[in-house]
Structures are given as structure tokens and as C-alpha cells.
Write a structure and sequence with these properties.
The mean pLDDT is 79. The protein is globular. The chain has 22 helices and no strands. The N and C termini lie far apart (100 Å). The protein has 540 residues and is an all-alpha fold. 80% of the residues lie in helices and 0% in strands. It folds into 2 domains: 366 residues, Na+/H+ antiporter like fold (Up-down Bundle); 111 residues.
Length: 540
């Protein structure tokens, strides 16, 4: 038999065998990924349950509990998640950024735009330069590697602190400053990282002119793409009322905007933040009814919960204690430089902002902004995305992990003490209770109105209708008594009635425009009119 005929007979069998081998390997990989997914979800849900049912654990923010659990798993060498570093930014960042942008109110940002911009842009520059200078001067790291560490650590992640703010009732403005800064400095920090990562790889030289030009190009393309997608989807959702489709569009917009912007050479992070703000403040008002808005918000709450669970477990679970010990000098210098540069940027920029704004940032609030500037999921995602070929990759990861652990476990667990000592605990829990009572009163009144206008069915006894009405009336009277009691004890709650009324008026206006567009009686978006009128009235 010739070699040609032998090869012709054996080749198909070999190819078939290889195909089966790869199919088995692929199925095994999918099964392993599903197992990891279920394990991570189980651990996250277990930690969430414990944090709610145990009074002792309730004092610790949920995300910090996840870090502690992850550390315990790492200590016994149990590794839950294995992800390709190249995919971490694309998997984790879009949902985290979109959820934060979706929930932040544009009106609140407008009132605090100057300090937010200063902290998010100038503050990042101060952090990158300060951390890089310290590491290059006091450790063996080269300046190019130190700049990457500085860029990774310049993004604040206040998930734990903001959750604590809301639980304790810290002022709304303090929460907006912390969230707004984090939302935008994430984008600036990632752009800075992308601009600097080519220097140690030798693919580009550092030039201030070129770096500034590329920065504005990155940001400009990101904003343009985010606006295009955000306004496009806002216009599209006005044409129909399909909650699940609209929910899916927000998910597609988050990941799609990130990928498209990156393909165009811009910042995917800036693009996601832009589209999230537009859809959360414009699209959700003019293109979604209240039921859909609630559905989408709950969906993103869950997605952010799950992604944060993975990231904060990953922070603890991926720790290599021996590696951290080998780089303890880098970590100590980085911690000191992060704390110092954070203080410089907050006090310097905060006082500068106070010169030009009516609403001053008090020194007590500046202390919380300084001490509450935690590093977390974004810093970890950026550090793990460092190319494998980079010689100093492990030093970058160890340094960032060490600083993140310090900020979460030391600063995060002591922020409550600072809030209490500085008397920054507000009345947010009381306002939340009052808001819930007002909502129950509205709902019960609508139920009574429905029963009064309902045509009584001959199959149902009329006495039953009266019985149901009496039950609802009794519950309504109980709610009214609680509302009046709170109003008498806390007169400041009356201002909340006006705030809720204004929110309802804005919703009615937006819903009316959306209804007219869906009915074909209006062909273009109309900018909110009441928002400007009410804002002008409140300033007088």
C-alpha cells in the first residue's frame, strides 16, 4: 500500500478523533465554568444571608464580608474563580459602571459638578503622579511600572462606604460627592492606564503633548459613542412598551457601547458612563413607564450585586500571601502614598471648590471623603488586565491587592466610627420610613378609589365589597395616624412631601410625552419643561 493511500485512509479517522477530543475538552471546560459560577453564587448568597440575619455581621458592610471570606478561602488554598486577565475589564467594568451611572441623578450632579470634576480629573493626576514618584524613589520599581501602579490605584470604589452612608443616613450631598467622583474617576483612571501601559512594553514613548492629545481623543470618542447609543435607545424605547425588551436593550447598550468605543479607539469606560447617565436620567423617563423603570432598576441592582460579589470574592480569593510578603515594602510605600495623595487632593481641591460654590464642603465632610476613598473592584480589574508579557506584572498586582486590602479592611471598617465622631449621621432612615408611609397612603387611596368606582358583580355578595372597603379604610387610617405623628415629632419631614410632589410632576410630564410619541401624535423628543421651571423657582 502506498503512503498516499495509507494517509487517505488514516487522515479522516485522525481528524474525527481530534474533533471528539476537542469537543470533550470544550464540554469539560464549560462544565467546570458552570461549577465555578454556582460555587461563587452560593458563597455570595450565603454571605448576604448571614449579613442580614446576624446582628453582629450587620455592622460590617456586605462587600467587606466577601473580602474576608475570600481571604479565608485563600488561606486554606481554595481558589474559586479563574479568569483570563484580558477579559476582566470587558466582563466586570461595563455592568459596574452602567449601574452606578444609571442610578445617579443628573440634577444632583449639576449642583455638585465643580468638586466632582476636580476630584475626578485633577485628583486622579495628583494620585498617579504622587504614587508613582513615591514608588520610584523609595523602592526598586522603575518609573514606568510605578506609573501603572499609580493609575490602577487612582480609581476609588466607594461601594462599601456608600452602602454604609445609606444605612446610617449620611447626608445626600456627601453620598453624591463620593459616588460622582468615583463614577468619573474610574473612566479617567482607566484612560490613564491605557495611555501609560505602552511605555514599559516599549510600544510608545512618553510625551506630554501626545498624551494630552490622546487623552482628549479617548474621552471624546467615548462621550460621542455614549451619546449616540444613549439618545438612540431613548428615542427607540418611546416607540413601544415591552419591559423585557427595554431591559435587554440596557444590557446590550452597556456591553455594546464598551466594545464599540474600544474598537473605534476611544475609552469604553467613558462611553459606558455616558450612556448610563443618559438612559438613567432621560431614557428611563421619556421612554419607560414607572413599572418598566422599576424592573430595569431591579435587574441592574441584581447584576451589580452579582458582579461585585465575584470581584470582592476575587480580591480575597486570589491573594497569594507569600507573594504579598515578598513585596511588603512596595505595599507599605504604596499605602502611605495613596493616603497622603488622597488627603492632598481632597483638602486642596475641596477648598478651591469652596471659593466658587455656594454649598461648601465642610472640613468634617472632607475628612470622610479623604478616609472613605477606598480602592476596590476597578483597581483590581485594571491590575489584573496588565499584559502577561510585562516583566513587573506580579509586582503591580501584589501592590494593588495589598493597598486594596488595607483600604477595605482598615479604612472601610473605621469609616462608621469617623461618621459618628464627626456627627455626620443624618435622618435618612427616618426619611425613608416617612417616604414608605406616604407611598402606602397613595396606594391605599387608589385601592379605595377603585372599589368605589367598581361595578359590583352579581356573583359576589355586596356585603363582601363593604367589608373589603372597611378593611382598606382601617389600614389607611392607621397609616395616616403614623404620618401625622412623624410630622408632629419631626417638622423637617414636611419638605419631603414637596420633593415627592415635584418628582411626581416630572414623571407625569415625561410619561405624557412618551405616550404621545407611542401614539404617533408627537414625532420628536421634547426636553423637560417643568424641571427648569421648578429648579428656577427653588433658587428664588
Amino acid at each position: 500500500m502506498s503512503l498516499e493511500s495509507l494517509f487517505a485512509q488514516s487522515a479522516p479517522a485522525a481528524i474525527s478523533s481530534l474533533t471528539r477530543h476537542f469537543a470533550i475538552a470544550e464540554n469539560s471546560s464549560i462544565e467546570q465554568s458552570l461549577e465555578q459560577f454556582l460555587i461563587v453564587l452560593s458563597v455570595s448568597l450565603s454571605v448576604a444571608t448571614i449579613s442580614k440575619i446576624s446582628s453582629w455581621f450587620r455592622q460590617i458592610p456586605y462587600t467587606l464580608l466577601l473580602v474576608i471570606v475570600g481571604l479565608c478561602l485563600a488561606f486554606v488554598d481554595i481558589r474559586l474563580v479563574n479568569l483570563s486577565p484580558e477579559l476582566i475589564l470587558e466582563i466586570f467594568l461595563p455592568p459596574l459602571l452602567f449601574e452606578a451611572a444609571w442610578n445617579i441623578r443628573w440634577r444632583d450632579l449639576q449642583k455638585n459638578w465643580l468638586p466632582v470634576v476636580l476630584f475626578a480629573v485633577i485628583g486622579v493626576i495628583i494620585s498617579v503622579v504622587g504614587v508613582a514618584f513615591s514608588l520610584s524613589q523609595f523602592t526598586s520599581l522603575s518609573l514606568s511600572i510605578a506609573l501603572l501602579v499609580g493609575a490602577s490605584l487612582s480609581a476609588t470604589d466607594p461601594v462599601s462606604v456608600v452602602a454604609l452612608f445609606r444605612e446610617l443616613g449620611a447626608s445626600k450631598r456627601l453620598t453624591i460627592l463620593m459616588e460622582g467622583e468615583s463614577l468619573f474617576n474610574d473612566g479617567v483612571a482607566v484612560v490613564a492606564f491605557v495611555l501609560l501601559v505602552g511605555i514599559p512594553l516599549g510600544t510608545q514613548d512618553f510625551s506630554i503633548t501626545i498624551t494630552i492629545t490622546r487623552f482628549f481623543a479617548f474621552v471624546g470618542i467615548g462621550i460621542a459613542t455614549g451619546c449616540l447609543v444613549g439618545f438612540g435607545i431613548s428615542y427607540l424605547t418611546q416607540r413601544f412598551d415591552l419591559p423585557l425588551v427595554e431591559q435587554s436593550l440596557t444590557l446590550v447598550s452597556a456591553y455594546g457601547t464598551y466594545l464599540i468605543t474600544e474598537e473605534l479607539g476611544g475609552s469604553g469606560v467613558i462611553g459606558v458612563v455616558t450612556v448610563g447617565i443618559i438612559l438613567g436620567n432621560l431614557g428611563s423617563r421619556i421612554g419607560m413607564n414607572p413599572r418598566t423603570r422599576l424592573l430595569v432598576s431591579e435587574f441592574w441592582d441584581f447584576l451589580a450585586f452579582f458582579v461585585n460579589s465575584i470581584v470582592f470574592l476575587l480580591i480575597g480569593d486570589q491573594i497569594r500571601f507569600s507573594s504579598l510578603a515578598n513585596n511588603i515594602n512596595l505595599i507599605v510605600v504604596a499605602i502611605a502614598s495613596v493616603v497622603v495623595t488622597r488627603g492632598i487632593s481632597i483638602y486642596l481641591l475641596g477648598n478651591f471648590s469652596n471659593l466658587f460654590t455656594e454649598a461648601k464642603i465642610s472640613w468634617e465632610e472632607q475628612i470622610i471623603l479623604w478616609w472613605g476613598g477606598l480602592r476596590g473592584s476597578v483597581s483590581i480589574a485594571v491590575a489584573l488586565s496588565v499584559p502577561v508579557l510585562l516583566p513587573g506584572r506580579q509586582e503591580i498586582i501584589d501592590t494593588v491587592f495589598g493597598v486594596v486590602l488595607f483600604t477595605l479592611l482598615v479604612q472601610g471598617l473605621t469609616t462608621k466610627w469617623f461618621l459618628t465622631k464627626l456627627n455626620l449621621i443624618g435622618d435618612q432612615p427616618l426619611r425613608q420610613e416617612y417616604s414608605e408611609l406616604l407611598a402606602r397612603r397613595i396606594a391605599l387611596k387608589r385601592v379605595l378609589d377603585y372599589l368605589s368606582k367598581l361595578d359590583m358583580s352579581p356573583d359576589i355578595d355586596s356585603e363582601f365589597y363593604r367589608y373589603e372597603q372597611e378593611l382598606v379604610k382601617g389600614q389607611l387610617e392607621s397609616v395616616e395616624e403614623k404620618i401625622q405623628k412623624l410630622q408632629q415629632e419631626y417638622s423637617q419631614l414636611r419638605s419631603l412631601d414637596m420633593e415627592l410632589l415635584r418628582e411626581q410632576l416630572l414623571d407625569i410630564e415625561a410619561d405624557t410625552y412618551a405616550e404621545l410619541i407611542r401614539g404617533g401624535r408627537l414625532n420628536k423628543n421634547l426636553s423637560p419643561l417643568l424641571q427648569e421651571i421648578l429648579a428656577s423657582a427653588s433658587e428664588k
